[in-house]
Amino acid sequence: MAAALAPRTIYPSECNSPLDIPDLMPNAPRAYRSGIHQGVDFQCFTLGRSAVAALDGRVVLAVGNYQDPDSDDRDELLRIAETLRATPPFTLLNLYGNYVVIDHGVFPFLGHVVTVYAHLHEVDPDIRVGERIQAGQRVGEIGNRGTHAAANGDFYVDPHLHWEIHIDNLYLGAGLSPGQTREVYTTLFSESPR
């Protein structure tokens, strides 16, 4: 799958590659919410960096007016996930902060491809639901909305792009070991310009 997408995929961020850090890759455990990480966290360290569309597609969701809950309310959501021993979808959406979802359509012999761009400081004003987007087009400014730091009012700590790619409703690399996950994403980004 990754090899088939690699020639068309643009690196979604100008930030540091996390491919050698298993905790920032898919399948890393997320004990604080009783779940598994489904994306790649590109570490930026400062605001002002851009997230860009990895492939051509159509914007299907764009949340640019996210209000971070206070720390106690966020902790309560996470306690519910701990009690359930799973992260409910509504909790995941709350943890995304400002985010954009792009539908890239069905690729022959591969499946339906969708990408998610989360923790954005702001969504680009040109990003609107239903609009076509080109690979490399700016999606928004990378930030930390939806994170613990943002819930505490600090929007400058640990800005990073949480990026997911799903094929037929499964995140790329689901169930793989850390080494296998790294190999899949190294293949995916092998031809990507940065």
Helix content: 10-25%
Oligomer: single chain
What's the CATH first level? Mainly Beta
What is the CA-CA span between the terminal residues?
21 Å
Q: Radius of gyration in whole Å, from Cα?
A: 16 Å
Number of E strands: 11
Report strand %: 25-35%
Derived structural class: alpha+beta
Number of helices: 5
Q: By CATH's scheme, which homologous superfamily applies?
A: Glucose Permease (Domain IIA)
Low-pLDDT ranges: none
Mean pLDDT: 94
Task: Please tell me the CATH architecture by its name.
Answer: Distorted Sandwich
The largest sheet, given as strand count, sense and whether it forms a barrel, is: 9 strands, antiparallel
What is the total number of structural domains?
A: 1
Write structural notes for this entry.
With 194 residues, the protein is an alpha+beta fold. It has one domain: Glucose Permease (Domain IIA) (Distorted Sandwich), CATH 2.70.70.10. The chain has helices at 2-5, 71-84, 89-96, 148-151, 178-188; strands at residues 29-30, 35-36, 40-43, 50-52, 57-63, 98-107, 111-123, 132-133, 138-142, 160-167, 170-171. Strands 3, 4, 5, 6, 7, 8, 9, 10 and 11 form a nine-stranded antiparallel sheet that branches. The protein has a two-stranded antiparallel ribbon with strand order 1-2. A hairpin with a 4-residue loop joins strand 1 (29-30) and strand 2 (35-36). It is globular.
Briefly characterize the structure.
The protein is α+β, with helices and mostly antiparallel strands and 194 residues long. It has helices spanning 2-5, 71-84, 89-96, 148-151, 178-188; strands at 29-30, 35-36, 40-43, 50-52, 57-63, 98-107, 111-123, 132-133, 138-142, 160-167, 170-171.
